[in-house]
Design a protein that fits this description.
Chain A is α+β, with helices and mostly antiparallel strands. Chain A is built from five helices and three strands. The first copy, chain A, binds a DNA duplex through helix 4.
DNA sequence: TATACACTCAACCAAATGGTTGAATGAAAG
DNA sequence: CTTTCATTCAACCATTTGGTTGAGTGTATA
């Protein structure tokens, strides 16, 4: 399984840093959507949505499939896994923090 | 425990989308560093590092403490936990994918 | 007290981002 | 074959980003 290089992470995290794009991901997590179906709930022009999809595609977060005059967009969770893998390095830190906090609270209750 | 709103996630993911900033986070994960210590291994001006730190601070990924003429920067892993919490929604998707792949491979081996 | 050190601020710059409009392309339906 | 629907492209625009330089502000130290 190939690990993401720094440039991949740049594109993945950049793609996730926009609320419209995160909203699109939630939408297609439920299943394939055409581009017009994706655009419908968003108050943006078609062209704007098209650009957002390109950003998501560049980060390999989505895939496309042609179906007649439609394009069906689907989630590609592999790329998200790369973001998760990067974050996992830091999990120990927030876990330590929480444990330290827990200790502190317990010490307060029975000193 | 307060959950991150959309605007928080914008700032967190944006902060993570830059290799210099991710490198700074790795550095201070090992312990507090002064700003000059952070700057040393990076081939950038002091002012540039100062700006990156401001981006990380805005995302609440780091904290500052004054120590004489130094400023000590430390990791604040809570914010990262918010990114992780957002991603966790998608974990089921990549897990499903991997299981489907595993199934496929196993079926190949013993058809 | 003068001088070095550790930064921050302001001004500037080029490139990228996120949006728009309007024209262009390509498939499907009348 | 014309029209309509689904989408992209090109041009444009304002704002943000990531960097620079050079001056300014504290805090130590000789």
């Amino acid at each position: 399984m190939a690990t993401a290089d720094s440039y991949d992470l740049d594109r993945i995290f950049h793609a996730l840093a926009d609320p419209t794009r995160r909203s699109i991901l939630r939408q297609i997590a439920e299943g394939e959507h055409s581009i017009s179906a994706i655009a419908r709930p968003h108050d943006l022009t078609f062209a704007a949505i098209s650009k957002h999809l390109k950003v998501l595609e560049r980060a390999r977060l989505i895939g496309r499939r042609k179906d007649g005059s439609f394009q069906m967009i689907s989630l590609n969770p592999e790329a998200l896994k790369n973001a998760d893998r990067w974050l996992s390095y830091y999990q120990k830190f927030w876990n330590l923090r929480l444990e330290a906090l827990k200790d502190l609270l317990e010490r307060k209750e029975r000193p």
